[in-house]
Structure prediction request, 321 residues.
Amino acid sequence: MDYIVFDLEWNQCYGSREFEESRMPFEIIEIGAVRLDKKFNLIDQYSSIIKPRLYKRLQPHIREILNYDEKVLKKGRPFDMVCREFLKWCNNGNDYSFVTWGPMDLNYLQNNMEYYHMKPFETPLKYYNLQKIYADMQGDELIAKLETAVNTLGIESDRPYHSALNDAYYTGNVLKKLHPSDFEDRYSVDIYYNPKDKDDEIISYHKNYMEHISMEYDSKKDAMEDKDLLTVKCYKCNKKTSKKVKWFANTPNSYVCVCKCWYHGYISAKLKFKQTKEGKFFVIKTVKPENKKGVEAIKERQIELREKRQEKRHNRKKTAS
Prediction:
């Protein structure tokens, strides 16, 4: 198994939204990647500049952080040509998995591929979000920048950032430094092409959590009426659990509940709503173990939200009278 650690640089519309191409709001202008073997040793690299088709003028913020300008981009090659070359380089005869710093690079790569009518990846597409893995291993709830991880881990930083190849190189070095023994279990499932119906739903069991990517629903209300989605089974033994804190809206786009497995103790479950380009909804459901402190925090959050709703209703009645 090889690991393709890749990074992208992209540009966006210089002017107002009315001039943006809605089918491709972020246009890739550089692909950089390193290939790691199963022991996370760097064995090859790839880099190419892409000549933009839509946004030929660099957006000011992007111009500020890049190490090149429009003159360099004019010498690049078309996206579809570069992308086919990159994917051919990835597939050198060995099985491979993508590794990225955050989920957006893989999202934008597929968006640009779709714009150019290129063949999509087979689904479900597994990859490794090293930004998330780093946060989990460091016990940090904050999402760290790549530069922060490099500095924290004491990795030499002698190359400029915001170059696709350099950022891929640093990401590869972070992975080698972390060297998680359970790396294979830490995969994520890409959701650019989300499941459309029940038969396509994705359920993946990991050592310490379960993830369920649901079918599409016409509305959030329809999702919350799906008994299968609301049923919480233990992430470890897959047996039904008993509810200790019923589902409640934690944010406008998420619900939380707490259950208890007879064998494995407290479990928290979360529903996170995602909207499709067509205006429908699908849900990412996660189930994981929870300690007593976490359970109490969830209960306190439920009470806090309930009191806020009661206060709003009281204020509305007061205003109406």
